[in-house]
Amino acid sequence: MMATFGCNLRPDFFLESQYIPLNHGSFGAYPRALRPLLHYFQEKAETHPDRWLRREMFPVLQENREAVANMIHCDPEELAFIMNASYGMNTVLRSIPMKEGDKILCFSTAYNAVDRLLAYIQDSRKAKLVQLELIYPLSDQQILDMTREAIEREGPESFKLGVFDAISSVPGVRFPFEKMCKLLKEYNILSLVDGAHAIGQIPLDLHAVDPDFFTTNCHKWLFAPRGTALLYVPKRNQRLIHPAIINVSYKDHRDLEDQRSSYQDEFSWPGTIDFSSYMCVKQALKYRDSLGGEDKIQTYCNDLARKGGQIAANILGTDVLENDEKNLTLHMVNVRLPLQNTTLTDSQITNHFYDKLMYEHNTMASPYKHNNKWYARLSAQVYLGEEDFEHAAKALLSVCSDLNKQ
Ligand SMILES: Cc1ncc(COP(=O)(O)O)c(C=O)c1O
Fold first, then answer.
1. What pTM did the predictor assign?
2. Which InterPro entries match (predicted)?
3. Which sign does the torsion angle of CA 63, 64, 68, 73 carry?
4. 84 lines ligand 1 (CB under 6 A)
């Protein structure tokens, strides 16, 4: 029998029964069904470390890479398991050869750590960041137009790379990454896509989109245990990339005659770690199949985010951050908060929300400020129903009333 989505599915996960979790977007959660397998692989590493870590785990990792490559339409040889999207973004940005003055196109909505990583690349490589400010709501076309205009203005040949999200963190909105890859290709500019939120939230066809580099977290929307992500590098670019942790397989590929790739060897051993979570990806896909498959899961979450967002906006007396095409909302919905003037700093406000939501209301939805307005990002998931959005919205309203008095 097919599972029914909603709070009755919550016991499939380890989440506390009284906790109303509307923040899947931050750290993900994995189903109980994966735990025995995770422990099984950990035990294999303990009972005979040499056999396991030198030989026997590699075919298991390969099977998992094949399963996920099949899902996102690429070759397993183009995928490397890595611990998280932060590692993927660091790997690419620290690897790509840059010379002084090379420009990097980026956006004001980059994830906070990626924003600092870009600042580091600017400082250490003397690259120049061309950052475009995005003030939502925006249509895909507006984003593409302002990008084209910036490239033309700055001179296409001065750009080395464009860095952008598939789905941004705050605001939690879809970004037209497919069209952006195409646009950059027109100008011969490399594309690095931060797809931290992508796999499991949207269908992916990497060969069709053809980014130059793409990273995605399996521990967010795919239900793999934490510390599981992917880096996709098509064969043509593998010679440009070395992992952020260099291992014994490092090879210099600057000689253009040498077309051999050491990508898989360089990424397969990031020093001694627990590889077990990577081996649970196939099982995560099986669990998703048992719920009815990607379409069913993704449609449920998209619908719930839209309905739940409207419920929350009605309770808060505000609105949902959407454009005219209504294509910003996927599994995360952004609802404006009725915060008036308060004397508190942004960080005090954020921490006040965290403390009150987590410890008094036993719920969580990420508060953030965009264009001088406060919003909450509420994540839909298969283990949630509309009543959970109602609970979170009432909690947010209560915290706002509290803050409006300060
Ligand atoms: C857009 C984006 N990029 C990167 C990250 C970093 O992910 P991780 O902490 O798994 O490395 C996040 C995390 O939420 C994110 O939202």
1. 0.98
2. Aminotrans_V_dom, PyrdxlP-dep_Trfase, PyrdxlP-dep_Trfase_major, PyrdxlP-dep_Trfase_small
3. negative
4. yes
